[in-house]
Design goal:
Number of helices: 14
Structural class: alpha+beta
Oligomer: single chain
Distance between the termini: 59 Å
Shape: globular
Length: 546
C-alpha cells in the first residue's frame, strides 16, 4: 500500500488523499471501472465469483471515493450495487448540504471494509464552517455482473444518515431549546444521554414557542414528522428558548445507570398523583427511544389489567378462591405455569403473587359470550387504563395496543402475550393507575404550553383500586415473585413481574413494574429472562432514587 500521494480533482474543489488505499499516478478522470480492468473488453467472459480480492477492494474504494469527491453522482452510483438509490443521495450530499469542498482520506482496508475520513467545508449565505467525521464502505461482488461494487447504504456518506434521511443545510427549522428539569436546571445530555432524542423532539415541537431564534445548521432531515431531525453541524448559533420539563434529575440519573448494565434495556418513571414523567432511559442511549416508542409483548405485567377486568366482572376478588392447576386448555390450545407449578385451594392474591398463568385463563371461562371474551380485555385497557388512547405527552410516544382477539390468542392476551404491544412508559402507567386509583395521562411538558388535550379514562372503582393494591403488595413482599427485587424499596409499595416470549429469542424478555410512595416505574430488558432477575433491579434502583 502506498500513502501520502494527493490527487486533485481538476475543475472542482474536492480532493482525495491517498491513505491506506494506494493511488499512485492513477488518473481519477479516466478508467473508473469498479475495480474490473476487463470491463468493455471481454464481453464473453463469465462473471467472476467468490469473495472480493484485496486488489478489487482497493481499486473499487478508490474509484468510488474519487467519483464522489469529483461531484459526479452518476459515476459514483454506478460503482455501487444500488445505483438508483446511490446516485441521488451522492448528489444531495453536495447540493442539499451545501458542501463546497472536502478532502477524503481512506485508511487501510480491513477485509472488504475501507474506513475513511472526511474533512469538509460547509458554506451557506456567506457563513462557512469546517466539518469533519469518519465513515466506512464495504466492497461486495455484484450478484449478476460479478463486478466488485460498493455495498450501498446511506451511512457511507455520513454515519448517522439513514435511508429515509437527507442532509440539509440552511436556517434551522426551529430554534434550539434549553431543556431544564423540574427544578429549572439545564438537562445535561452528557450526564443524561438517553434524553438526546427527547430533547431533539422537544425542539421540533416547541422551539418556536419558547422565545428562541433559529441559527444556521447542517442537519439530517428524517423525512418524517414523527422522527426528529438530527443536527450534525452548527454554522451560526441561534438563541435558545427555555423549556421546562418534568424530569427529576436524581431519578433520571438512577435510570441512566440502571439500564447501562444491560445491552438492550429501557425504563420509564411516572408520578402517579399527577402523571408527570420523572425519568426515561434506554440502553443503548443513542438512537431509538424504546421506552416511549417500543412495541413489545408485556408478558405477565399485563395481569394488572386482567386482574382489574376479573374484579370488575365479578370473577375474582383478592381473598376469593381461584383454581391454579399446572396446565389448562383454552379452545384446544394448551397453557401451563412456569415449571408446571400448581396451587391447591389458593386465593386470587396467591395466584397473582406467584404469577399463575392458568388462574388468569381458567377463571375467565364463565365469559361464555365469545364477542365479550375476545374484546373485553382491550375495552378494560382503554376504559380503565388509557391504553390505546392518544396520549399527548409532549413528544412522540406509542400508546399501547390491546386488539380484539380470537381462539387461543384470547387466552394468550390475558397473560400478556398474543398481539398485545406496549413499552416501558405504558407499563409504568399501569402501576401508576393502580396506585392512584385512576389513569392520569403521562406528560413531559405542561399542557398549558400548547393547550393540547390529554387522554382521559374512567377512574377505578374503590373495590378495583384497593384490590389491585392488595395484589401488587403481595407480589412485592413475602414470597412474591417481585419480593427479592423490591426488598430494599420503601413502603407503601407494589409490583408485578413479567417475562415475554419472543419467537426469534431463546430467552424471554424480562419485564417488571412497581410503585413506591408517589413514584411508579417499569422496565424491559431484552432477553433478560425472568422479570425479577433483570428488569426488577432496574426498577428498584429507580424507585429508591425517588
Amino acid at each position: 500500500m502506498r500513502s501520502g500521494a494527493k490527487v486533485a480533482i481538476v475543475g472542482g474543489v474536492f480532493v482525495v488523499v491517498a491513505g491506506g488505499v494506494g493511488y499512485g499516478g492513477y488518473n481519477l478522470w479516466n478508467g473508473v471501472t469498479g475495480g474490473d480492468s476487463t470491463v468493455g473488453t471481454k464481453a464473453e467472459s463469465a462473471p467472476r465469483t467468490g469473495p472480493v480480492t484485496p486488489e478489487e477492494v482497493e481499486t473499487t474504494a478508490r474509484d468510488f471515493l474519487a467519483a464522489w469527491a469529483a461531484g459526479e453522482p452518476e459515476k459514483a452510483g454506478q460503482l455501487t450495487n444500488d445505483p438508483v438509490t446511490a446516485e441521488p443521495a451522492v448528489a444531495a450530499y453536495r447540493e442539499g448540504a451545501a458542501v463546497t469542498e472536502a478532502v477524503i482520506t481512506p485508511g487501510a482496508a480491513v477485509g472488504a471494509k475501507v474506513p475513511f475520513t472526511v474533512k469538509a467545508t460547509v458554506t451557506y449565505e456567506g457563513v462557512s464552517k469546517p466539518w469533519s467525521y469518519a465513515s466506512e464502505l464495504t466492497v461486495v461482488r455484484g450478484q449478476t455482473t460479478g463486478r466488485p461494487l460498493v455495498k450501498w447504504q446511506p451511512a457511507v456518506l455520513h454515519p448517522k444518515l439513514t435511508a429515509a434521511g437527507t442532509l440539509r443545510t440552511g436556517e434551522a427549522k426551529a430554534p434550539t431549546v434549553k431543556a431544564v428539569d423540574r427544578n429549572g436546571d439545564e438537562l445535561s445530555l452528557t450526564n443524561y444521554p438517553s434524553l438526546a432524542s427527547v430533547v431533539a423532539d422537544l425542539r421540533t415541537r416547541y422551539g418556536a414557542k419558547t422565545g428562541g431564534t433559529a441559527g444556521i445548521e447542517t442537519w439530517i432531515d428524517s423525512g418524517s414528522e414523527a422522527v426528529p431531525d438530527t443536527p450534525v453541524l452548527v454554522l451560526r448559533k441561534g438563541k435558545p428558548g427555555t423549556l421546562k420539563t418534568t424530569i427529576d434529575p436524581e431519578v433520571q440519573a438512577a435510570a441512566e445507570k440502571a439500564v447501562k448494565a444491560y445491552g438492550k434495556a429501557a425504563v420509564a418513571a411516572i408520578e402517579p398523583s399527577t402523571g408527570a414523567i420523572r425519568a426515561v432511559a434506554n440502553s443503548p442511549a443513542a438512537g431509538f427511544n424504546t421506552a416511549f416508542l417500543g412495541m413489545q409483548a408485556p408478558g405477565s405485567t399485563m395481569k394488572i389489567v386482567t386482574a382489574a377486568m376479573m374484579i370488575q366482572q365479578g370473577l375474582a376478588a383478592p381473598g376469593g378462591r381461584v383454581e391454579c392447576p399446572a396446565d389448562v386448555t383454552w379452545k384446544g390450545v394448551p397453557f401451563h405455569n412456569l415449571d408446571h407449578f400448581e396451587i391447591d385451594g389458593g386465593t386470587f392474591t396467591e395466584s397473582f403473587r406467584r404469577s399463575c398463568n392458568t388462574a388468569f385463563i381458567k377463571a375467565l371461562g364463565p365469559l361464555s359470550d365469545k364477542d365479550v371474551e375476545d374484546r373485553i380485555l382491550g375495552e378494560t385497557a382503554r376504559r380503565s387504563f388509557g391504553i390505546g388512547l392518544s396520549w399527548q405527552v409532549g413528544v412522540q410516544t406509542w400508546d399501547g395496543e390491546v386488539p380484539e382477539s380470537s381462539g387461543g390468542e384470547t387466552a394468550a392476551s390475558y397473560i400478556g402475550q398474543g398481539r398485545i404491544r406496549m413499552n416501558a412508559l405504558n407499563v409504568a402507567s399501569l402501576s401508576a393507575t393502580a396506585k392512584n386509583g385512576g389513569f392520569l395521562q403521562p406528560y413531559l411538558v405542561e399542557r398549558g404550553l400548547d393547550d393540547r388535550e390529554f387522554a382521559r379514562a374512567e377512574p377505578l372503582s374503590p373495590e378495583v383500586a384497593s384490590g389491585l393494591q392488595t395484589l401488587m403488595r403481595a407480589a412485592a413482599t413475602g414470597n412474591g415473585t417481585a419480593a427479592e427485587a423490591m426488598a430494599g424499596v420503601p413502603s407503601p409499595k407494589g409490583a408485578k413481574t413479567g417475562s415475554a416470549e419472543v419467537d426469534d429469542q431463546a430467552t424471554s424478555n424480562s419485564w417488571f413494574t412497581g410503585y413506591s410512595g408517589d413514584l411508579a416505574a417499569a422496565a424491559v430488558v431484552e432477553a433478560g429472562g425472568h422479570g425479577g432477575d433483570a428488569a426488577g433491579p432496574v426498577v428498584a434502583r429507580v424507585l429508591k432514587a425517588g
